Amino acid sequence: MTTDDDLRSDVDAACDRIAPTWPLDRFIAVNPYWGWRSTDITDAAARLGRLAGTMLTMPRTWFCDEWRAGRLSPHELAAAANAAGTPELVEAALDLLQAFHGPPQPTLHRMALITDVRDQQLDGNEPVPGRTWTDLVVHQISQHCASHVDEWQASWAPSASDCLFDSWRIDPSVTHGFAWRHGRRWARAQLDALPTNPTDAISVMLNDLGVGAAGREAYLTALLTSVNGWAAWCAYRRWQARLLESDDDMIVELLAIRLAWEWMLAADADETDPAGRQRAEWAESWSFLDALAADTADEQHLDWILQTAVERTFQRDIMDGAPQATRSNAPAEIQAVFCIDVRSEVFRRAVESMPTSVHTRGFAGFFGLPLAYTPTGSALTRPQLPGLLAPSLTVTDTRTNDSATLDRQERDIEARTATRLATLGERARWKEFRTDPSSMFSYVESLGLLAAIELVDHSLPHQDAPAAWERDGLPSDVGELRPRLTLVDDDPREAAAIGRRVLNAMGLVDGIAPLVMLCGHGSHSANNPHAAGLDCGACGGQTGEVNARVLADLLNATAVRDELISLGVPIPDSTWFVAALHDTTTDGVELFDTDLAPASHRERISQLSALLATA
């Protein structure tokens, strides 16, 4: 008999298979197979093929095209087969590549869910004309999740319940609009009879379906992959909560919802439906995943040899064509630290190729700072570091770097916050008046043609990038705002400890040039919901401006430099750090806070600016 701990272990294992995905405003690249990172790739591919119907290798026809194009070497093919311990497959691979007379493409046989079984028996009696049960279930779950987790988008309030599963159980769209064989009242009674706790409900439904302990993890994993988009969002919520040493069970609630659809469709099947007659055989099949995955792995063995051979050929060509690094022994007048992102690497290589005394380095674009950034007058705090990490420091904006005026800075920040909140509050009330059901028509009737002008303006194409929201609602005379770490003034020794860790990681512990540029990267685009994906992934899908400016300010601070001497990492008095941002859309570079540089460095900064413009 399965215990509560065993069930929770199976549920957690299924949830852990789902890779988190970050929201659009901080979108970063995530390996979609992150949840399988402890599993051998061939085994993971075989299991995913059975559970989700996905392949991790290219089609065999693609390998034939690579062979004909010369991008698959016979030598590397033999090396890949030998490395896999199957040299006898070289002949089969060559037969396939040369004439495509080899073994046919393996067919993936995804294990059937109840929705699949019901779809196979439709015979023209769809639950909704032209739609399958699988389509409708995914659509209904997606619509409910979108309403439940709405973040400041909907004009009307989303679900009042904090529990996704609880709000779904009372959602009328679950039972209405579907062709239930036993009727809507029966469907509603089924939902009402379920336990309100998602884990308890999962236990009851699995027992009713007859899925044994040996097959539960596989079945639950397959259910989550069938709604992988929303499962990935829930996995993100759990990831963020656990970074803060808390937890979030929304992914378990989503799993309970997807399982509930299976449970209801199985119970709704009549006696002539295989979903009813063959349920025991279906339930038992989930216990055989290991054996089925092993068969699939054997069928895909040739594909993995071909995949490995293509990758080895590509790597060999890259290494053979890579230029040998050369660097002048002359001391550098300028050192430039760029993000190691491939979009900045191209620019960095261009700078290196110029006959100048500029030496470059590559470093992660968040510059080792565990930062979160709160724009002045805003309640929103955004992380400026890799998504796998939690920020431990928060920076905001100031108008001066003079520590003697900190009290005035605080008063200025309070005043700007009040002004901004008042401005944004007025806009929110006006927007509510325009979109509220009781006033939206009155708004249009009252303004008449003036409303039409606004509609026409919104329909016209705009090429300009939107203004930075960080300054939205602030008075026009706010002046120059600079992100700055208060730790520089409050605790210079702790700030110096941060600086020492960063300098050691960069390798800037000796031979520091008179001018050091810390260059983050970002982009700009108009009307692009995925704009954050074009910015710095190391900065959490933001630009690297904040991190570069904060680090430059920290390393330029006199009090911090004094502490760095005692920590064994002295910075020459003649060195100045300048922050910069590489726009990967235009390949332009903007230098920041150059007005703070001492007069002795102005000419060298001008030279750097001219150099970057020609790179």
List keywords for this structure.
615 residues, alpha/beta, five-stranded mixed β-sheet, four-stranded mixed β-sheet, 26 helices, 9 strands, globular
Inertia-based shape: globular
Tally the beta strands.
9
Please state the average pLDDT score: 86
By helix and strand content, what is the structural category? alpha/beta
Task: Order the strands across the largest sheet as they lie in space.
Answer: 2-1-7-8-9
- Cα-to-Cα separation, first versus last residue: 69 Å
Strand fraction equals 5-15%
Which percent range fits the helix content?
40-55%
List low-pLDDT spans. Answer: none
Number of helices: 26
Largest sheet: 5 strands, mixed
> What is the radius of gyration?
30 Å
3D structure, described in words:
- There is one protein chain.
- This protein is an alpha/beta fold and about 625 residues long.
- The protein is built from 26 helices and 9 strands.
- It has helices at about 5-15, 40-50, 60-70, 75-85, 90-100, 115-120, 135-150, 165-170, 185-195, 200-210, 215-225, 230-245, 250-270, 275, 280-285, 290-300, 300-320, 340-350, 405-435, 440-445, 450-460, 485-490, 490-505, 545-555, 560-565, 600-615; strands at about 335-340, 360-365, 370-375, 380-385, 395-400, 480-485, 515-520, 575-585, 590.
- The strands form 2 sheets. A 5-stranded mixed β-sheet has the order 2-1-7-8-9.
- Helix 18 links the parallel strand 1 (about 335-340) and strand 2 (about 360-365).
- Helix 4 packs antiparallel against helix 5 (about 90-100).
